[in-house]
Amino acid sequence: MAAAEIVVVDPVTPDPDVIARAAAIIQRGGLVGIPTETVYGLAGNALDPAAIARIYAAKGRPSQNPLIVHVASEQQARELAAEWPAMAHELASRFWPGPMTLVVRRKAVVPDAVTAGLHTFGVRVPDHPVALALIKASFTPLAAPSANRFTEVSPVTAQQVWRGLGDAVELILDAGRTRVGIESTVIDVSGGRPVILRPGMLERATIEAVVGPAGRASTPMMNQAAHPAPGMSARHYAPRARVRLLETAALRHAVQAAGAAGAAGAAGGRPGAVAAGPAARLGALLCQTPYPQDRPLPFIVALGMDAAHYAAGLYDALHAADEAGCEELLIELPPDTPAWVAIRDRLRRAAHP
Known about the structure:
Layout lengths: L4 E4 L7 H12 L4 E3 L6 E5 L3 H11 L8 E3 L3 H7 L5 H10 L4 E6 L6 H4 L4 E5 L4 H10 L3 E2 L14 H8 L5 E4 L10 E4 L6 E4 L5 H8 L3 E2 L25 E5 L1 H16 L6 E6 L6 H7 L10 E4 L4 H17 L2 E7 L8 H11 L2
Parallel strand pairs: 1-8, 2-8, 4-6, 5-9, 10-11, 12-15, 13-14, 13-15
Antiparallel strand pairs: 2-3, 3-7, 4-7, 5-6, 9-10
């Protein structure tokens, strides 16, 4: 297949003709790169096993990792569910459209390939006009995992989709950089008690204020067992660069050591750093590091101490580090507080060997 065409769409009022073109691709079993509020997705007809097989093949995704189904309303979600518990309605009424996925028991119309053979499936209503318009125009729910190769960094721009999967899709809808920046919170409501399977920017306390105490999933490692939700593999969201997670003081020492090695002409790849908070001053430190003229300066991004802002910029920073040719990426660990749970989860998986 030729490389995909990128078509710019208005993120609020997308051109109906462009949406109709994308919907025609979906209806004939093809794949489209689409924006959501979290990350860009690789969208196909969620009820078409052949389209689902194309998604898995394009991503190199193991079959034990289920896909999330994207719908336009709670009612459309109910039509796919064998059961819709009261807590599902309470959460959907409060947080949809938005970055929350509910795991419920499925009807037979949802293919086994979508669910990794489980009797449950994940479903959400995305908070993005382009995604919603495409779901409605396609007259079908969409399976739309992140539009990247398995274990790699999720894309937050259309250009990142093109670089990673441009030969696997016919069309990429470009609505600019995504707003949330990391994947949805996944909550299993198929049992008597809600269980958070994957953390996201919708925090535990906010969820529990609606449905009471929520359980915490034990995370499976890389194995053959079906995972109850995506994003639960030990290694995930990983750039090509080796990732080292460091506390602030250790990060400063590591950056200084990298600078000294560069100045001495020591062998080794170009380092990079992702800093937060006071460590944003590393930029000045790096400028003072005596790198020789014939070696590139290290890559550095300071994402700050606001969790929402950090999340929105994290994957962009990881993509930029790879584009800059970093072989090692030094990342300052953000605070171990509720607001940062999802971010620390993504960083730990990115750093897993």
